[in-house]
Structures are given as structure tokens and as C-alpha cells.
Specification:
This protein is mainly α. Helices cover about 45% and strands about 5% of the residues.
């Protein structure tokens, strides 16, 4: 599945909207003014990162602003810990009369009732049917068989909690959890990268009260350090093993590095998988598996994974501002069918990239209130008709429109359900486990939200890359954008007295991590891909059992077993590669332990060029390969199709022999990237 492509600005200017969103009355702003006054008095103190305060975990200071390239020291404490950008943004929203009261409870989540959280969790993970019935169908057998021990423990815990709450509410008796998990034996998930090395010990039924504190390290030890971020084993299993060993992962503090991630992702034999590399059919399985793993990780760390229940949304379905993402994309696709990111957002980002990247204080300096209101009205009227021109839009006005677009979504971009979970991330003491939780949360997001967030984060990274000109460091950008992502519709959350500083610092830290680690966050963990393979494999065998083909199924099991026992003798010596468009013969590549996908693509490019040269003098015009299809070798990709995967774009560094062993019934096809 190709990644969502942004449209050029020229196409944006031919578009215009439908109707103007209905304005809402303002809300009092006295509490914002009081908070800003307290903020100015307390700038010297160090705010804590916790947002939800759902558990008692060690507190830490928020990360400081990133140093300029070539610098050997961080910013001063006053600069690094300043939250001026956050509270100035909140105060500006209030002064511009942009705070709105919800006519319903659409964006604001409400506390769930007893047992409601577990019911919703089981529904989101596809396990709701476990609550009733007498038998365990093949779908649930397949899903449960893919889970690791920590994931099984997380499912059991939710079922136990639901059972106890149902009994207290005098509801009909539900199935005992032993009836469900006695029906199968959960095996070990083999590593997607072919490493069967780590054997995980049995998880204790007792949830740890709190993770062990990491060993503090000095700044000299952290400078230039790069830690491995492993994706081949479940994060919850990694955390369990470390707790059983009585220690936390090395690197107790996160060191910001210039030009590269402080965490590196080791490439296994099967390479790395990004979100756009999997087909939509396989990606639909990822959120449920990621939610189970996120819950298991929080259970191991002793965290309470808070979720809100979204209320009914009372939002306009037409227009540009204050419209649900799904409705906005549906309108956009009438103009551009392949749209994955809202056209208005693409146009705003394109405008800012053309005119404002070097402007000092980009995103922080406000535009003209009168001009912004006028631009919003013109956009609502002329965007889709192509009569709106971006040539005269000031970059500060465009940045105000960008933040307003995000803030005015009927539901938060990070979703009502998972916004509290994002808020809990800064309370995790270990930086690697913070990043693991944030990674799983990104995978859980709905596809429209995830694509929109990706486009926004890519733009923010470009802003930070030009900080020498625009003076917007990573911390400055994070403090300015955090209110628009975490304060839904600009409304301050209902917090106890004195917790505003914790909200500000924690929200800014999450945005900082999203921007800085976005390349890592948009990967699909290898252990999740392995679970998808196993789930697809169990689903493919299900119809044979339903049709009464038990003997056929058993023969296939024995054939696979004999093939595995045959070892190298059962492995073909030549890999046959198909081509998705016009070419006469199949490409044959020697299948050796050192053959990579990149080798196949290079051989194919040479083969294609020689075929073109041989056909130059041919009179058969229909047999000629179209030169327009031959661009550079980077435009070609090798996919595995079928078997235990729907479609998977392969990493150029993946090894073919290991891919064959992971999916012996799949096919390899070369395709060209869409133009």
C-alpha cells in the first residue's frame, strides 16, 4: 500500500468549499488569565511531565530545547524549561474568541461506567464475542494463538475484570475465562526477523507495582550515545524479561542528537516494514494487535491505560473547519479520488513551505485576526471551485489557519478515546519504554487520523530543520503546537488546582517525541507483522475445515512438516520473480543466503535496459517496452504477494532466503511505484 501522497499547490488553488461552519458562543476566560499569571510567577520551577497522574511513578524534568547544530552544550535551564510558548498560545486562542462551547459532548470524553471500558476494549480488539456463547470459533482460536504470554495475560485480565463487574451488576453469568484459554495453548511467536533466540519466561500473575528506576547517568555518558530499539520481540515481553532480571534497559535518560535518532532500529534478515508497505487488508489487523500489546505493556509497567468514551458528535458535515475527518476526506475524494490527507491541510502546509520556512517565529508569531477571519470565509466559499488564490496569503495568517483547522476538529486528532493514553506516556520513566508506548499508540490510531498526523509531523520537522533562520527549535515548535493537539477546541481540561504546569510540560514532551522520532513511529514492528502472518495462515486453513476437507488439511500439515525437516534440500535454488507490467520472461535469481532484495532490483534494471536496447531496431511496435515506464531504479519495488500475507513491499536490505522460509507459499512480484 503506497503512502498517502500530498498534492501540489497548483491543484489546491483550483478547489473551494461548501458552507460556513456555525459559530458557537465564547466561554469565560478568567481562569486562563489566572493560569497565565501563575505561569509567569513560576517560570523558574521545573514542571513535571505527568498529565493524567493515573499512577505514582518517578517524576522527571521535561526535555530541553535542542541545541543548534555544532553546539556541544544544551540551552540554559531558563530557555530549556520555558513554557512561554504553550501558555502564550492558550492565551492567544482565548483573546481571539476562538474558544467554543460544545453543543453536545462530541469531543469531550466522559468517564466510562463499570465494565464499559473492558467491553469497549474487547470490541476494539475483535474479542467481544468471547463474552458469550459456548464454543470458541476458529476466528478467535486463530487470533488467540498469535498472542504472546504477556498479551494473553492482558486479555485474561480484561475478561476477569468484566466478569467481576458483571456479577456486581447482577447481569447474566458470563463465560469463565478458563473455558476460553483452556481451548488452546499459546505458543511462542517466532521472530519476524528469523531470530528464534530469546525464550521468554512465564509471566507472573501479579502486576508489578512500578517499574524499577533506571540507573542515572551523567551527561558525558549520554553524549553521542545511540541505543538499539528492537522491534523483533513484543515490547511487553522485553519489559517482562528486564523486570525478571531486576534491571531496566540501559540509557536511563534520553539524549537528543543532531542529525540522527538517539535510538537506532536494527535491521533483521527480513528488513524493516513501514506502514505504507503493508496492504490495507493487512493493516486493518494491526490496530487490534497493537492495542492488545499496548495493554500488555502497560500491565507489565504497572500503568493504568486510561481511555475516554467519545460522546455523540454534533458537528456540521459540510465545509472545511469543524468538520469530521471522514466527512472532509469524502468531500475531497469527489475532487481527487486518491486523497488520503485533507486537501485544505495540504494547501496550508504547501503555502507555509513556500513562503514561511525562513520567517522568524513561524507558528509562534500570530497573524491578523481580521485577515484570518476573512480568509476562513473565502476558503469556505471558494476552495473547491478553484477561485481561491494562495499568492497573497501571509505565512502568519496561514499558520493561524493551520492551527485552527487542527484545533476545531469535532474530535481530537489524537482521538477522544486515546488522548488520555497519549497523556500518560510522559509518566513512564524509561525513554525506550516511553517510545514503545507512543509507537503502539500511533499504530492504534484510525487511518485518517494517522495520515493527517503524519503530514503535520513531516512539516514540523521541516520547520525545525530551518531553526537557524526561523529561530524555532524543536522545543519551541512543540510548546506552540501542543495546545492545538491536546486542548480540544482550545478548551482547557478540568484539572485540579496547580496541575496546569504538568499538563503543559507533558503535552509538549509528547509532541516533541512525535516530531523527533516520526521515522521510527511510522514503522510496523516485526513481531506485529509475524502475528499478521500467523493470523492469515490460520484464516486460510479455516475454510478447508468448514468444507470437511480434514484429510486435505492434515496432508498439508505433514507436507509442511516434511518440508521443514528437509531443510536446505526443500529450498529451491532459483527464485522466480514476476513483473507486474509488460515484460516477456520471468526473472530468475539465484536463491542464496546472501541474496538481497536490492540485488534482485539491480539485476532487473539491467535486464530491462538490455531488453530496451535489443528492441530499438524492432519493427514490432507493440512488443516495445514503453520508455516512459523506465525511470530510475529507485522507482521499482519487490513485493511478496499471497501465502500468509496479502501484499507486502519488501525492504531492499531483506534477504530472499529468509523471506522464502517466512512465507514459502507466497510469490514475488516487481512493481513500479505510482507516479
Amino acid at each position: 500500500m503506497a503512502e498517502p501522497a500530498l498534492l501540489p499547490a497548483a491543484q489546491m488553488e483550483r478547489l473551494a468549499p461548501v458552507s460556513l461552519a456555525t459559530p458557537c458562543p465564547r466561554i469565560p476566560r478568567a481562569h486562563i488569565a489566572r493560569r497565565c499569571a501563575r505561569r509567569r510567577m513560576d517560570l523558574g520551577s521545573s514542571p513535571g511531565p505527568s498529565l493524567g497522574q493515573t499512577n505514582q511513578l518517578p517524576q522527571k524534568s521535561p526535555p530541553r530545547a535542542r541545541p543548534a547544530p555544532g553546539a556541544h552544550s544544551r540551552l540554559s535551564p531558563a530557555e530549556g524549561l520555558s513554557m512561554d510558548g504553550f501558555w502564550t498560545e492558550v492565551e492567544r486562542i482565548q483573546q481571539r474568541d476562538e474558544l467554543r462551547e460544545d453543543t453536545g459532548d462530541g469531543g469531550e470524553g466522559r468517564p466510562p461506567e463499570e465494565g464499559e471500558t473492558e467491553t469497549q476494549w474487547l470490541q476494539d480488539t475483535g474479542l467481544l464475542d468471547l463474552l458469550g456463547g459456548l464454543g470458541l470459533d476458529s476466528h478467535h482460536r486463530g487470533l488467540l494463538s498469535t498472542l504472546t504470554r504477556t498479551q494473553v495475560a492482558a486479555v485474561r485480565r480484561r475478561l476477569d475484570i468484566y466478569t467481576r463487574s458483571a456479577r456486581r451488576r447482577h447481569k447474566a453469568p458470563v463465560r469463565d475465562v478458563r473455558e476460553i484459554f483452556g481451548a488452546f495453548n499459546s505458543g511462542e511467536i517466532s521472530s519476524e526477523n528469523g531470530d528464534s533466540g530469546i525464550q521468554w519466561s512465564q509471566l507472573s500473575s501479579r502486576t508489578p507495582e512500578s517499574p524499577l528506576a533506571a540507573e542515572p547517568e551523567g551527561p558525558q555518558a549520554q553524549t553521542g550515545r545511540e541505543e538499539a530499539f528492537h522491534m523483533d520481540a513484543a515490547y511487553s515481553e522485553q519489559a517482562t524479561l528486564l523486570l525478571q532480571r531486576g534491571r531496566q534497559p540501559p540509557g536511563g535518560a534520553c539524549a537528543w542528537s543532531e542529525g540522527s535518532l538517539p535510538f537506532r532500529v536494527p535491521k533483521g534478515r527480513l528488513g524493516l516494514t513501514r506502514i505504507g508497505d503493508l496492504s490495507s487488508q493487512d493493516m486493518r489487523k494491526i490496530p487490534a494487535l497493537a492495542l492488545i500489546e499496548l495493554t500488555a505493556l502497560c500491565d507489565v509497567l504497572g500503568l493504568d491505560l486510561k481511555r475516554s468514551k467519545a460522546g455523540k458528535q454534533k458537528a456540521t458535515e459540510t465545509g472545511l473547519f469543524g468538520v469530521p475527518l471522514e466527512a472532509l476526506l469524502e468531500a475531497d475524494r469527489r475532487a481527487c479520488p486518491s486523497t488520503q490527507v485533507p486537501l485544505l491541510l495540504q494547501a496550508l502546509l504547501s503555502c507555509l513551505e513556500k513562503r514561511g520556512m525562513d520567517a522568524e517565529g513561524l507558528l509562534r508569531v500570530p497573524g491578523s485576526q481580521a485577515r484570518v477571519k476573512g480568509l476562513e470565509q473565502k476558503l469556505e466559499r471558494d476552495f473547491y471551485t478553484g477561485l481561491f488564490s494562495w499568492d497573497e496569503v501571509h505565512h502568519n495568517d496561514a499558520s493561524d489557519l493551520l492551527k485552527r483547522f487542527i484545533r476545531e476538529l469535532p474530535a481530537p486528532l489524537l482521538t477522544t478515546e486515546y488522548l488520555p493514553a497519549f497523556a500518560v506516556v510522559p509518566t513512564i520513566p524509561d525513554p525506550r519504554q516511553r517510545l514503545q508506548a507512543l509507537h503502539l499508540l500511533v499504530l492504534v490510531l484510525p487511518e485518517p487520523n494517522r495520515n493527517t498526523l503524519k503530514a503535520l509531523l513531516e512539516f514540523l520537522r521541516k520547520v525545525v530543520a530551518r531553526e537557524q533562520s526561523n529561530k524555532m527549535t524543536l522545543w519551541n515548535v512543540s510548546t506552540v503546537m501542543a495546545p492545538n493537539l491536546f486542548l480540544h477546541r482550545g478548551q482547557p481540561p478540568k484539572l485540579p488546582q496547580g496541575r496546569e504546569k504538568q499538563l503543559a510540560a507533558g503535552a509538549a514532551e509528547v509532541v516533541q517525541m512525535l516530531v523527533h522520532y516520526q521515522d521510527l513511529l511510522w514503522m510496523v514492528s516485526s513481531f506485529l507483522v509475524a502475528q499478521v502472518r500467523k493470523l492469515n495462515d490460520s484464516s486460510s486453513r479455516r475454510p478447508q475445515l468448514c468444507d470437511g476437507g480434514l484429510k486435505t488439511w492434515l496432508r498439508r500439515i505433514h507436507a509442511d512438516k516434511d518440508k521443514a525437516e528437509g531443510g536446505r534440500e526443500a529450498t529451491p535454488k532459483v527464485a522466480k520473480i514476476q513483473v507486474a507490467w509488460l515484460i516477456k520472461d520471468t526473472l530468475e535469481v539465484p536463491l542464496t543466503p546472501s541474496t538481497k532484495v536490492a540485488h534482485v532490483l539491480r539485476q532487473f534494471t539491467r535486464h530491462l535496459r538490455s531488453s530496451l536496447q535489443a528492441q530499438e531496431g524492432s519493427e514490432d511496435k507493440e512488443s516495445l517496452l514503453p520508455r516512459s515506464r523506465l525511470r530510475k531504479s529507485a522507482d521499482f519495488f519487490l513485493y511478496e504477494v499471497g501465502g500468509n500475507i496479502s501484499e507486502h513491499r519488501l525492504d531492499p536490505d531483506a534477504y530472499l532466503l529468509d523471506l522464502y522460509r517466512a512465507n514459502p507459499h507466497g510469490e514475488w512480484v516487481i512493481k513500479q511505484s505510482p507516479t
